[in-house]
Amino acid sequence: MITVISIIVIIAIVAILFVNLSPEFGANPSKEKVLQYEKLDYFKDGKFSNLIPTNMDMDFTEAIKMLPEFFKNDPTRRPDFELPIERRDSLELVNEDHPTRLVWFGHSSFLLQIDGKTILIDPMFGDVPAPNPLLGKKRYSKELPIEVEKLPQIDMIIMSHDHYDHLDYGSIQKLKDKTKSFYMPLGMGAHFEDWGVDASQIHELGWWDEIQADGLLLALTPARHFSGRGLNNRFSTLWGSWVIQGNSDNIFFSGDSGYGPHFKQIGEKYGPFDFAMMECGQYNYRWTDIHMIPEETAQAAQDIGAKTFMPIHWAAFTLAMHSWTDPVERVIAKSNEINQPVYIPEIGEFIELDKNLQTRRKWWLEPSVLSKQMISKQ
Question: 31 FRET partner, CA 20 to 30 A, in 37, 53, 320, 373?
Answer without folding.
Answer: 53
